[in-house]
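re the bet — no i am not wrong, look at it urself. input seq straight from the record:
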Amino acid sequence: MSGPGKVAEGSAKTNARGGTRTWPGVRWSILSANAVVLVVNYGDRAAIGVAAPLIVKEFGFSPSTMGLVMSAFAFTYAPASFFGGALADRFGPRKVMTAAVVWWSVFTAAAALCWNATSFLVQRLLFGLGEGPQGSVTARTMSNWFPRREYATAVGLTFAANPLGAAIGTPVVAGLLVWSGNNWRVPFAVLGAVGVLVAVLWYFFVRDRPEEHPRVSARELDHIVGGELARPDDGATEAPSVGYYLRKPAVLATALAFFGFNWITFLFLSWYPTYLVQERGVELSSLAWAGSLPWIAGAVGTAVGGILSDRLAKRFHAPYTVRKWAAVLGLALGGLLCFGITSISGTVLSVALFTLTMLLLYTSNAQFWALVQQCVHPGRVGAVSGFVHFCANLAAIIAPAVTGFLVDDLDSWGAAFSLAAVLAVLGAAVLALAPRPAPVTASGSQSSASAPATSGRD
């Protein structure tokens, strides 16, 4: 493979020869496009939670049945996270993300055709199959387009779109429900159509790597592939097998911590609107502000966490250590605050505490992805990120169903929130105790455990 200088030179010649104008910061445009995809992803996912009270009323589902419906998509979402990352490593993020968005959008719209619990279960399983790849494909896209010194910022800003999607999706779905006279089928049809349009725009605008984009300048390409903590050349050395990384304590600890994070996320994504309606007496027309504020805080926490992580890593020349402890602190503090949500009297104070919980919790979000990149060969970022995301998304299978059973059988929202808090704190403790992995060299290969870290790295 050609070196960075030759690639940059070739890019410049292509642009000059074709007469194509270059754009400053094309990588940030790619990040923005990816963020739009994730907004749609989480907006589609949040729709079932907002519509749940109306669905329960129409079909007479018990909390246990509704919990199983909400959990069903994760049975396919979790493994698709892993396989989606592996496919992105092999075929590129552009094609894999396009196919995923079209698939999940079609089955978002298909929710409008459901008529009983079984049909909902089938729809959610197929829906999850398309939604699964988005996280690991995003991780691979950012790894391809950004140098390591900007990676946490890139994933932080991009994944901030996840809670932002829930923040936008909640009032949009609530507004469509009010506009349609509480016809819960309308939001699913509208969101499905929007998703297909976004998939088309993604395919025509995005390229797998900056070297392939006609508007990337030689200067920007040099910025990506040059300097301290540059984007390594994933073809410079042979990548270890995926299985090699899946046995590493640092990877497994990151996966467990991410599981605790996701337990809280999916509890609230699936059940928080129902909790506000049933326990706090919030009207559907008021659900927009109460349901959106915590997710806006989550978006801010994700972005700020990523930016601060990169700045501190650059300052202290210890990216792995900085990212690890940022994840531990955010996850632990968010989990501890989760204990008190149901004991707070008053809806406003309860929403305020949950908003603070999400702000702190989501500062850890970008760190999980950045920790993976810190540990693995760049040619395995998609697959290993997918594995970590797969483990985390097991919480998406279990959390909504367990919450439904706790509310149904024990009549206890407090038990549901307390369990989520314990799992988050436990995940933070395991990550805190995990040993530092052997460093990845500047070329992207894994050095021996005894080898010194390269410049600018732990």
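see?? The chain is about 75% helix and 0% strand. told u. also Residues 26-59 form the longest helix (34 residues). so pay up
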